[in-house]
Amino acid sequence: MNFIIRLNIAGALYALFPFAGIELMVNVYRIGRLTGCDLDHVNALTLVFCAAGFILSGWGVPRLVRYWLNGRKASFFALILWIPYFMMLIYITAAWFPITNPADKPSPVTGLIALAGLALYPFYLAVLHLFGIASFSGDPGEDPVT
Fold first, then answer.
1. CA distances (Å), origin 42, targets 27, 46, 92, 98
2. What residues contact residue 72 under an 8 Å CB cut-off, 6+ apart?
3. Disulfide: which of 13, 31, 62, 126 matches 131 by Cβ 3.0-4.6 Å?
4. Within a 10 A sphere around the Cβ of 131, how many other Cβ atoms?
């Protein structure tokens, strides 16, 4: 039971990275209008945040799998569990913070970028999971050739 709870929390954490990046990309005009910053500055900050999330997830996901999920192969279920959490976060954000100003609507290309990122994200997580499950004990074991 404890592992299932940890697995669901890991799935929710995996959903936060694409959610934050997509919401920042979609709400560039709103953030610029509310903060008074120009769009170039907001776009640069969005890019920095997405790059930092990419680096932090690349460092943190294997550690999370190895130490918190005990490197079990059942932790691969988190690669599917992040999807409902992501959909729930998007729905809650759209319901609580609707776009009321027509100037805040994102450009159509933003949706294509978001779809491409969401299509590649499970493969990125799978590679990180493989690094988390792999044994780095330093003992290569027997050589299968000799």
1. 10, 6, 23, 20
2. 3, 133
3. 62
4. 14
State the DSSP code for 143: -
Which two tokens mark 37? 């910053």
Q: What is the largest CA-CA distance in the chain?
A: 70
State yes or no: pLDDT of 144 exceeds 70.
no
Return the number of other C-beta atoms located less than 10 Å from residue 74's C-beta. 11
Q: With 80 as the cut, is the pLDDT of residue 71 above it?
A: no
What is the distance between the alpha carbons of residues 117 and 132, in angstroms, rounded to a whole number? 22
Task: Quickly state the pLDDT bin for 142 (edges 50, 70, 90).
Answer: low
Residue 80 reports pLDDT greater than 70:
yes
